[in-house]
Structures are given as C-alpha cells and as structure tokens.
Description:
By secondary structure, this protein is mainly alpha-helical. The protein is built from four helices and no strands.
Amino acid sequence: xESFCTALFALGAAFFIAHSMDAVNKQEWRIxxxxxxxxxxxxxxFIIGHIILFVVLIYFVLTLSGAFLFIINILLIAHAIAHYFxxxxxxxxxxxxxxxxxxxxxxFTAIWHTVFxxxxxx
Length: 122
C-alpha cells in the first residue's frame, strides 16, 4: 500500500510539473497579476517562483515527510479550485482539454493519495 501511495503522489506531482510547463507557454503570470511587471520580468519571476517551489517539493519528498505530502495535496487541490474560479478570466489561456487534464488530474490524484494515505495510517 505504501508504494502505491508513493506512486500516486508522484503521478500528481508529475501532472503539476507538466502543468507548470504548460503555464509558462500560456503566460499564467498574467492571471496572477504579475503583468504589472514588464513581460520578461513577469516571466522570470514566475519561473523563479516555480524553481523555489520545486526545490521545496523535491526536498520534502526525498525526506518523506508525511505531513508535508498532505500539505502538498491540499495545495494541488486548492490550485485546481483557483483555476476553476479563474476559468472565465480575460487572461486565462487554459481553455484546452489538455491544459485542463493536467490541472485537474493533479488535484484528482492528490485527493486519492490523501484517501489512500489516511487508510494506510489507520
């Protein structure tokens, strides 16, 4: 069960990382309000923010902190909810099926990872 939970978490993280690559292509910094910076500054800030996020993510995954994995799951779910509420934003370019699969699959796997993790702990 533990290796299944780990694989499920890895799948959700992979969907989020793939979404982050798609987000650079779709200029997600515009949705986040970074468009007040010039375009290259906003892009650089967005990418640097994701580098920091991934360093923290990878560090804690490698140390296998269960509580941190739960926090990441919550963030993946909250991220999908934010995309849902911003779906009609003028700056939102995540209209394709592919983009939405990446966003919502990360949340879906986070939900299932949390469920299986809770069952494993019980």
